[in-house]
Amino acid sequence: MLREASKSRIKLVTLLAFISMPLSGFVTDIYLPSFPSMAKGLMVSERDIQLTLTSYLLSYGISQLFIGSILDNIGRYLPRLFSLFILLLSGIAIASTDSVFIICFLRGVQGVAVATLVVATRALFADLYQGDKLKNYLSYFTIVWSCGPILAPFLGGYLEKIFNWQANFYFLAFYAAILLVFELIYSSESIAEKKKINLSQTVSVYKSMLQNKQFMLGILILGISYSIVMLFNITGPFIIENTFHYTSVAIGYCTLLLGFSWGVGGFIAKKRMNQPFNKRIGIPIAVQLVAIIGLLGVSMFYESIFVMVGFAFLIHIISGVLFTTFFTSSMLFFPTNAGTAGGLMGGLVYIITSISGSLISLGSQVSTQGDLAWRYLFFAILLLLVVFSMSRLQKKA
């Protein structure tokens, strides 16, 4: 039992858990610079390639809705091992096929595997730590996770240029294989007591979570904040290559910079964690809205990759601030059912994100900086309305 292990071993497993967290970001983002190349190589439309990402996000979100309660019942260790093994096999399989339909299916499989891995890792921290130490680790959670979105597109751009788009998925298989080996050697079960499967009790737990208005509004804010980031990830590569005529390496640099902005937002949120709610949330929301309106205004007269990415950098910092703030507070609502709460939260966040991604993919084509700005504005207004609702709820409480 991991809880009874030596402090040095627990620290090693904690470090291993942090190293595994960027994998979810890598699975999501590493092949973003290869979107145009994949569309040409597989001879399919831009929307078909965008749907490979949407398939992953939807699967990832739906899986988390029930995986949390299952992990509370069966433990964390064996599901983590199985997930890494599936990621290893599916990465090789995607790189070996030329069917976009099969890629969409395998990306759905990867969504289930990554959901299991992330929820199990998130719950592992709640198993091993309590109080301020747990809060401190959770605040670092999204910061460490952001290493994936920061590094993945940058690496993916170079892998695609040096080799081809398939190299991205071979890398994912290699990453999963290394983690699998270390998990087998050093890790073990972390949950103190597995909960027996009790359908009525499980339904009751889910019901209490769904009826908690602050918890649910926090999830909605998380989903919209992440949708703002994914908006650029889905449309940006095509704008950069087809409109501004830059290569996959340039796409990698742009997404690297924007991934860094998400990490910056996480650090800012951690520093502001003890400020009053209105100040902690109101100022970032106002700054983001002003930045989006500024991008929209500039786009009417001038379009450039530097203008687009510059404004997006500030917009994504604010999304990182909001995401880290509400992620940390939401995970502390139900500490005795960490797996279930984390799964429900993560699941709904990615369902929200996948729905927004589907609307972007199926709607009118986003081909200019101005098109991107209008969609940023839509999500920002939606975010403002939800935050206003939460602020009113806080005052009543």
From TrEMBL:
UniProt KW keywords: Membrane, Transmembrane, Transmembrane helix, Transport
A cellular component term, taken from the record's GO annotations: plasma membrane
Locations listed in the record: Membrane
InterPro entries (UniProt xref): MFS, MFS_dom, MFS_trans_sf
GO molecular function terms noted in the UniProt entry: sodium:proton antiporter activity
GO biological process, one term: xenobiotic detoxification by transmembrane export across the plasma membrane
Topology with respect to the bilayer: Multi-pass membrane protein
Transmembrane segments: 12-33, 53-71, 78-94, 100-125, 137-155, 167-186, 215-240, 246-269, 281-302, 308-334, 341-360, 372-391
Domain of life: Bacteria
Domain (Major facilitator superfamily (MFS) profile): residue spans on this chain: 13-397
Pfam families xref list: MFS_1
Protein name: Putative MFS family arabinose efflux permease
Organism, scientific name: Sphingobacterium yanglingense
